[in-house]
Amino acid sequence: MESLKQMRYALVDGQRADARPKLKGRCPDCDAEMVARCGPVNVWHWAHKGRLSCDPWWESETEWHRSWKNNFPLDWQEVRHIDQTTGERHIADVKIPYGLVIEFQNSPIDSIEMRSRENFYGKMIWIVNVTTGMIKGYFSVGLSGPIQKDPLIYQINWWSRSQFLRKWGEATATVYFDFGTDTLWRLIFYDPEKTVGAVSPIPKRCLIEDCSNGRAIRTMNDAGV
Fold first, then answer.
1. Structural contact between residues 185 and 200, judged by C-beta atoms closer than 8 angstroms
2. Among 25, 96, 126, 192, which one has the highest count of C-beta atoms within 10 angstroms of its own C-beta?
3. pLDDT digit string, tens, across residues 65-74
């Protein structure tokens, strides 16, 4: 069964509000009643009352999602995006006023949904959580180089049986991997036949600044690191 939609914000008396104990609100997307989930384990969030998710693309809110969203103004977080032709609508994790959508992906995603999101949002980037699990270790072991200095690019050899790089290599939007440090890694390409690809580092602060100001995202060289 599909999990209940978990969101940071609901509408309380017509205003966006964080979840607080015993508070009730309305979904800003479908106007269904929402209840505040404020337990001791999971990050406090809103959930639909007695119904499944109204947005099948939405995944459960985590501390990692919340931390990333907090790098941007509240009005840019959880923004409804509507296709003016078809009427299809979804809620973007972050939507910059300049038109860029940022999707923070914590769980595995299949190729069909990946392509659907990219086609729907158009101008977007992915930021993928790789702060836990064995993928981080395989990534570090596979790095070699640099094979190019400007912009700085490393080769990545993939010796794991995991399909992680193959799947993200299919993305048409730019993909950044977050390993929980101050540096993100952009996936430039991945060849599933040769199990080799290329990645480029970028300071996390630069991506946040450039996205916020509607600029092209800098490389490590441009950032002066």
1. yes
2. 25
3. 989 999 999 8
